[in-house]
Design a protein that fits this description.
There is one protein chain. The protein is 43% helix and 19% strand. The chain has helices spanning 6-14, 28-33, 49-57, 75-85, 97-107; strands at residues 2-4, 20-24, 39-41, 63-67, 91-94. It has a five-stranded parallel sheet. The radius of gyration is 13 Å and the shape is globular.
Length: 108
Amino acid sequence: MHALSGEDLEKMFKDPEQDFVLINVLSPEDFNRRHIRNSVNVPLKTHSFANVVAEIAGNLERKVVVYCASFDCDASAKAATELEAEGFTDVYDYEGGLKEWFDHQRAA
């Protein structure tokens, strides 16, 4: 698992060569309130979480970025660990999550 900063994620969005799937691991209610553009909601508590992400990603080698609420939330780290245990090879944890992303967007 690789840690990812908000700046890194922003660069990935701007780079057309980047092929990745962005997974929000929070509840559907949290996702519906606020989420990062182009992200897909797969709550960490989803039955067969890794299988659902694999279906979305298309294969285990595709870059997967997971995020949750903030640095204080450990759901994305747990999700990244689970994905790697299930054979995903290119997993990133955007540790700052929603809070950092939207704080950064307001400041820009």
